[in-house]
Amino acid sequence: MSTAILGAARVGYETKGYFRTWDQVFFTFLFPVLMLAIFASAFSSQSIELGPGQSITMADYYLPAMLAAGILLSGVQNLAVDIATEKSDGTLKRLGGTPLAPTSYFIGKIGQVFITGVLQAALLLVVASLAFGVTLPSDPGSWMTFAWVFVLGTTTSALIGIGLSSLPRNGKSATAVIVPIVLVLQFISGVYLQFSALPEWMQNLASLFPLKWIAQGMRAVFLPEEFAAMEPSGAWDLGWVAVALGIWLVAGLVLSRLTFRWIRRDA
User: Fold this and answer.
1) What Rg do the C-alpha atoms of the chain give, in angstroms?
2) 69 assigned to some structural domain
3) How far apart are CA 58 and CA 65, in angstroms?
4) Domain limits at 109?
5) Would you call 109 helix, strand, or coil by DSSP?
6) 144: Cβ–Cβ under 8 A, 6 or more apart, which residues?
7) What is the mean pLDDT of the chain?
8) Is residue 266 in some structural domain?
9) How many separate domains does the chain show?
């Protein structure tokens, strides 16, 4: 069987396995939905003024941030912890003795992230629209931007997650190693805190990592054009979003191929 066919077969297997692990589903699939509900409910009496008679709710404001966070959690946190655990419990060692190539394994993992990421984004949009009255974009251009930011961001996050899976020494330490990295990135990249209100050095630091650019791309889709003035350059800079994510995609691919092993070197 070809690498692509084996990889496609792995997608269904990986997806079923993902939804059978309830703690993983909660912390990577449902967590952004829960956080959106908390922020929208806690700040339901507040709004952000855009001008005379113009304002948006906090649900409007936090929707793109939670979409970006969901991409990071599904790709980086989910895969890094999952693969480190599979390496520790011997799953990868057993797979290494089969005809399954690392590329097929990667396809299965990335495919699972895409499927769960699409479902998560759809759930976020439905909850935001129906439960909190968020008005979704009506122009095709915005949805085209959403599509390429989502696809590029998801692929990049998945590859980074595969690469980072070699960082924890074993499955037990995977959560303790990976979650703090993901949490810090969320705070400095404009997910929980307004990016323009962060210190300049923190904005510059966040610009070195992909989450800042994913969040910026999502803000360009869902927030009014007036918000572009609050970005560091005063514009959405979607071209730079694509360039930054493209660089990280290549870096994640190289890192994955260089660091991935069916067993640990020190095993």
Assistant:
1) 19
2) yes
3) 11
4) 3-259
5) helix
6) none
7) 92
8) no
9) 1
